[in-house]
Specification:
- The protein has 241 residues and is α+β, with helices and mostly antiparallel strands.
- It has two domains: 17-103, Hypothetical Cytosolic Protein, Chain: A; 115-234, 60s Ribosomal Protein L30, Chain: A.
- It has helices at 71-80, 82-90, 106-127, 135-143, 158-171, 188-195, 212-234; strands at 26-28, 35-37, 42-46, 52-54, 64-67, 131-133, 147-152, 182-183, 202-206.
- The strands form three sheets. The chain has a four-stranded mixed sheet with strand order 6-9-7-8. It has a three-stranded antiparallel sheet with strand order 4-3-5.
- A hairpin with a 6-residue loop joins strand 1 and strand 2.
- The radius of gyration is 20 Å and the shape is elongated.
- It starts with 25 loop residues before the first strand and ends in a 7-residue tail after the last helix.
């Protein structure tokens, strides 16, 4: 069911997982007790058999518990037993007729789910015409101000990154700022498989500032940027602003 419009912003549980994130809403991390924008957190959901699993898209029905994208904190909470206590409170002991449980590999499951969410998002945006591939084409688009977000594979060369970063700064009228593209926590093989192309080392998200098309393209950059940020933060490698 939908969450009532007067739901407290510090709630750490919500029954609206099937309806996706609501822009501007906040949730409380069940581990730290701190409140964050909902889109910055990771939702955990419980299956009919009582197993707690990651739900990064916030689409699973029923109760959800929210945690900050911090793998070290999650691993510590598992070792110290804090996670078990927090989840018992959040899920009221688990579904009827099933004991609440989670795998010691929950951190790996969360990381894999976040990576898959990012890769799926890239695939969707490619099909939507919002992704630019190929170093030469990407440099041209970047230099002419048509790239809203520049991304590099984790195993890309420093020289290749520098050339595209420079072209991007020129197109953004940000020469001398030191602005750089984001190095993803994913290698070229993962990107190539997700996008169905060979040797994807660099990619850009199209954007034209100030136009109707630019608004749509910028939102694609926002969607991808959010997925990149959550995965990077969870892995302890915050991307640059």
């Amino acid at each position: 069911m939908r969450t009532p419009p007067n739901e407290r912003v510090d709630s750490d549980i919500v029954d609206d997982g099937a309806h996706g994130p609501a822009s501007g809403s906040e949730r409380r991390c069940v581990l730290s007790g701190e409140t964050f924008p909902r889109e910055d957190l990771i939702r955990l959901a419980v299956s009919l058999t009582g197993e707690v699993l990651p739900d990064p898209g916030a689409k699973a029905p029923g109760r959800g518990a929210w945690i900050a994208p911090d793998r070290a904190a999650l691993e510590k909470a598992i070792v110290e037993g804090h996670l078990k206590r927090a989840l018992m409170r959040a899920f009221k002991g688990g579904p009827e007729g099933a004991a609440l449980s989670y795998s010691d590999e929950l951190p790996q499951l969360v990381e894999a789910a976040l990576a898959r969410t990012l890769l799926d998002r890239l695939g969707l945006e490619l099909r939507g015409g919002n992704i630019v591939l190929g170093s030469a084409k990407l440099a041209e688009h970047a230099r002419s101000g048509r790239i809203a977000l520049l991304l590099h594979a984790s195993d890309s060369s420093e020289d290749g990154r520098k050339k595209l970063d420079q072209a991007w700064r020129v197109g953004c009228d940000a020469e001398g700022s030191g602005m750089r593209g984001t190095v993803l926590p994913l290698d070229r093989n993962a990107l190539s498989v997700a996008l169905g192309r060979e040797n994807v080392v660099h990619l850009g998200v199209s954007g034209h500032s100030g136009s109707r098309g630019g608004t749509r393209k910028a939102s694609a950059a926002d969607r991808i940027g959010q997925a990149v940020t959550r995965l990077s933060r969870f892995m302890g490698s915050d991307p640059p602003d």
